[in-house]
Design brief:
There is one protein chain. The protein has 342 residues and is of the alpha/beta class. It has two domains: 16-138, NAD(P)-binding Rossmann-like Domain (Rossmann fold), CATH 3.40.50.720; 143-287, 2-Layer Sandwich (Dihydrodipicolinate Reductase, domain 2). The protein contains ten helices and 13 strands. The strands form two sheets. Strands 8-9-10-7-11-12-13 form a seven-stranded mixed beta sheet, covered by helices on one side. A six-stranded parallel beta sheet has the order 3-2-1-4-5-6, with helices on both faces. A hairpin with a 4-residue loop joins strand 8 (206-215) and strand 9. Helix 1 (25-35) packs across helix 9 (297-308), helix 4 (89-101) runs parallel beside helix 5 and helix 7 (182-202) crosses helix 10. The protein starts with 15 loop residues before the first strand and ends in a 9-residue tail after the last helix.
């Protein structure tokens, strides 16, 4: 049974005290700039922590953060309310456990653990302690996909229904994080985003069938998946590291209903029965929207901080992420064999 996250005492009248662990490229170029765009609830970034103290110190000076630390034990003495983890899967799982045991709410970048089993253990710990957690799956926080989910709630797809998704990138083409293969490295880096997104839109995956093809000369990988969801919906997903740049598109069809197409984070098109094929976009970015907003980074961080301050729980929690990483592990371990997230 889940436990409600422990809120900050609203009578304290002070900003949330948070820290960032891991000062690499993603933290530098994405998380810290996104945090600067979060204006409520009030929070103070009190420390940056990284084993490379020079990197932490340089980043702290740039963003006017008071403390730069190399020691997590020292960080835990800072009376934190929440922490953002941006390191490696093995570091994520261990640091998540340490932070939770210290009473700290945790936002952890994906992948949150080296396996779904370890992830489930940390989820159980968070629930037992009543602490809020969130995994950094920003796609579900992107405006385009929040709008699409709202549309699907108002206009459910009629069975049989199909979603075809394509996710392309140019890397990784090597084993990252000692994951064991280029295929798993790609799934942890990119594929988890697509699996989480379709689960967010349509519910958990079942009866998953997958195939991995790879070129040993170029380290190219092609992963194909078929999965069943509730109410007669089937998804067919293709992912590869062989493209020159990032690309994501979904095409969704329901029997006698709307035809829906998304293009990256920039356009949502919905064609209803009887309408012209060139129907105007149902959603597109505003003139002042930037990449951090469009990709969902600002919204996901704001949701986490709001939950820590006593607002609604944000997602995905560690528990909600377990089925996603169960499917991911099954793709690698049993490629070509039917698997299920349960």
């Amino acid at each position: 049974m889940s436990v409600e996250p422990r809120p900050l005492d609203p009578r304290s009248g002070r900003p949330l005290r948070v820290a960032l662990i891991g000062c690499g490229e993603h933290a530098t170029n994405t998380l810290l700039p996104a945090l600067q765009r979060v204006h409520a609830p009030a929070f103070e970034l009190v420390a940056l922590c990284d084993a490379d103290i020079a990197a932490a110190s340089a980043l702290a000076r740039r963003h006017r953060v008071a403390l730069a630390l190399a020691d997590v034990d020292a960080l835990l003495r800072c009376e934190l309310d929440g922490a953002f983890l941006c390191a490696t899967p093995s570091a994520h799982q261990d640091l998540t456990r340490r932070l939770l045991e210290a009473g700290v709410h945790v936002f952890v970048e994906k992948p949150p653990a080296s396996s779904h089993r370890v992830l489930a253990e940390n989820a159980a710990l968070a629930e037992r302690l009543g602490l809020h957690t969130q995994v950094g799956h920003n796609f579900r926080h992107a405006p385009i996909f929040r709008r699409l989910r709202e549309h699907l709630a108002r206009h459910p797809l009629r069975s049989p229904a199909l979603c075809v998704g394509n996710y392309v990138a140019r890397w990784p083409r090597e084993d990252r994080w000692n994951s064991g293969s280029v295929a798993k490295s790609f799934l942890l880096t990119h594929g988890a985003h697509l699996i989480d997104l379709v689960s967010f839109l349509f519910g958990p995956m079942h009866e998953v069938e997958s195939r991995i093809e790879h070129d040993p000369d170029s380290s190219g990988v092609l992963i194909t998946m078929d999965a069943q969801h509730a109410a007669g919906l089937r998804t067919r997903l293709q992912m590869t590291n062989g493209a020159p740049r990032f690309g994501l598109d979904l095409s969704i069809f329901g029997d006698g209903g709307d035809a829906i197409r998304t293009e990256n984070f920039s356009a949502l098109r919905i064609v209803s029965p009887g309408e012209a094929r060139d129907t105007a976009a149902a959603w597109q970015p505003g003139a002042l929207d930037d990449a951090l907003d469009l990709a969902g980074y600002v919204h996901e961080l704001q949701c986490f901080l709001s939950a820590v301050a006593g607002g609604p729980a944000s997602s995905p929690t560690l528990r909600e992420a377990v089925p996603v990483y169960t499917v991911l592990d099954a793709i690698v371990e049993r490629a070509g064999v039917t698997a299920s997230a349960g």
